Amino acid sequence: MGLNRIVSRNADGSGERQELAAGMAPGVSPDGRFVLYLIDERGSRHVRYSEVSANGTLGPPRRVFKNTPEPDISSPSLAPNGYFLSYDQRQQGGGVEVFMTDVPSGEGRWQISRGGGTRPVWAGEAGELIFVGGMPGGPRTVMAARIQLSPEVVIGAPLKLFDVGKDFSDEIEAAPDAKRFIMIRQRSEGGSEAVR
User: Fold this and answer.
1) Each residue of 94-104: pLDDT tens digit?
2) Looking at the whole model, is its pTM more than 0.90?
3) Which DSSP string corresponds to 10-54?
4) For residue 47, which of 67, 26, 68, 63 has the smallest C-alpha distance?
5) Which one of 94, 118, 165, 168 has the lowest number of neighbouring Cβ atoms within 10 Å?
6) What are phi and psi of 154, to 5 degrees?
7) Helix (H, G, I), strand (E, B) or coil at 177
8) Which SS3 state, helix, strand or coil, does residue 121 take?
């Protein structure tokens, strides 16, 4: 299996594709200062960021989390202000929980989910973090936690929005107002479809 690559190309399709870095799941900060992405190191996913230069290339990868060992994370999602990162992290007991940290410093760590959580996404206008709650193999629900990011971080208790059927994946996208969602439903005859 080959390496995952992060590439860029002009929005109008002109010009050549430019390889930027080895990694996956990239996200660009709202101010365009840096790109945040995951790298795979011997089966563990770690988050990195690189500053964007004036010519569009990326600087060297830098660690967000300075502690060792680094947390094994997935589903990174930048807050609308670009200064906080939500993610899910595998726990020692085998479950997965949703957390948030400052970015790019990696200082501060706030647990958002309790009793399992994955796939966090920000609903910008609503000031909410949406995620799929529940433990692997158990019932799942779409949850929302109201989060105030400034002048200090205040996290509200997650509230259940609706149940998720067994035929839906954990992948979710939220409209900015957090009133509409897109999820993927697995069809019994194979394939999948997006459901709103």
Assistant:
1) 789 999 999 88
2) no
3) -TTS-S--EEEEE-EEEEE-TTSSEEEEEEEETTEEEEEEEEBPT
4) 63
5) 94
6) -130, 125
7) coil
8) strand
